[in-house]
Amino acid sequence: xxxxxxxxxxxxxxxxxxxxxxxxxxxxxxxxxxxxxxxxxxxxxxxxxxxxxxxxxxxxxxxxxxxxxxxxxxxxxxxxxxxxxxxxxxxxxxxxxxxxxxxxxxxxxxxxxxxxxxxxxxxxxxxxxxxxxxxxxxxxxxxxxxxxxxxxxxxxxxxx
Length: 160
Fold this sequence. Notes:
Elements: H1 22-28, H2 32-53, H3 57-68, H4 73-93, H5 97-115, H6 130-145, H7 152-156
Helix pairs in contact: 2-4, 3-4, 4-5, 5-6
């Protein structure tokens, strides 16, 4: 519970530097986690699209999966494209949230360690590990928290 929240989960405007924003905070706060989950999923759709439909699948197989030593690199590249495109969309709307978040946590654990030798800053040549690390932590948090409100999982009444 933050300093600005009361016991009932309402924003205590007396503690805010800008008390006039309390109504905005109250209106948006219940959906803040859903917004984070949506963006965490939606950001991957583009990457999966590039792999599946943008001609990048062979490059992923040759330059990402093969150096990891995994068998059937083309199959793994397709799996990653499917996970990022369809899994990202599913995560965005909160469908099969925990299994998708777990798979993305594993993927981004590998990506983060893959980028460790390149340094911290993702803008460095070959990309550093800061961006994958942020996504790793977000996907792990989503895995442990689940879909939350404003999700298909919640509408179905099942948490996978």
